[in-house]
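Question (not urgent): is this output format expected?
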Amino acid sequence: MASHRRPRQPSRARVTVLTTAAAAAVVLSANAANAAPSEKLSKDEVKAKVDKLYEEAEQATEKLDGAKDKQQKLQKEISTIQDNVARGQEDLNKLRDGLGSLATAQYRSGGIDPSVQLFLSSDPDDYLDKASTLDQLSGQQVEALKKIQDKQRELAQERAEATDKLKDLSATRTELAKQKSAVQSKLADAQKILNTLTAKEKAALDAEQAQAASRASSRVNLGNTGSASGRAGAAFSAAQSVIGSPYVYGASGPSSFDCSGLTSWAYAQAGVTIPRTSEAQANAGTRIYSQSDLKVGDLVIFYGDFHHVGLYAGNGQVLHAPHTGAVVRYEAIGDMTFEFGVRI
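Got this back:
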């Protein structure tokens, strides 16, 4: 006999769950239908994106170099101040010991002179105020106390300076870590894009870059070297000796370089110290705004924020450390945004 029992209705909670699941399925289906298939970038598009990331990485690299240079200078300054404080404290202790010896001698002879008691006060300024009413102070005693006061003030100033520089050093280290992270992030993004190329495409891209470097090298007018000043010519020769060395961010030789690391190293080989970063090197000499006035060995500054630098090689070419993945090589000035030259 057929049952006439009413079919069981689903609970409200179950209906809600089923409805939500169905709605989600509809949304996912719609998204899948509307999503554009990912398109593979062409070799030239990859190069353009990677070049942009390399440029951004180099901007961060120059800031990294600046922070690193500042950190080294601060550490040296702090070390010098701490040494001065230590020596100053020794001098102060000797001055105090001298006053103590005077007090001991007076005590043994029958008592401590009131003026000497005040000498040994923990507050020399307070002592002078009180001592102004005493006639017992000798010129030698007054001079000794003033030396103590001067030394105390000097030490207080140096300790305050050291404290300020330590705070600056801490901030610099934070900036250093920030810029290092920025460089690494840009380089990682560039590598991801490069990894989308096939082996054949990578080989073709490498071949194009090698051909461009070869063409630039052939255009270099080495006969112009003699027109450079002695030290500029020596710096250029030093840079030529490391052609083919890899670009490594933050490196300044002798086996790897970033852009300003190469130029600062090259001039150091010629006995000339120039700043570490491209931005600072832009202000290290006389600016040359016309490319036709450049001489071999002049610094060449690129881009509006001065984040790239090379050495003029003659005939419209520059010798530089381009970017990660490249080596020290010649390149046409016109391949980058020329700002001006700098004659050291």
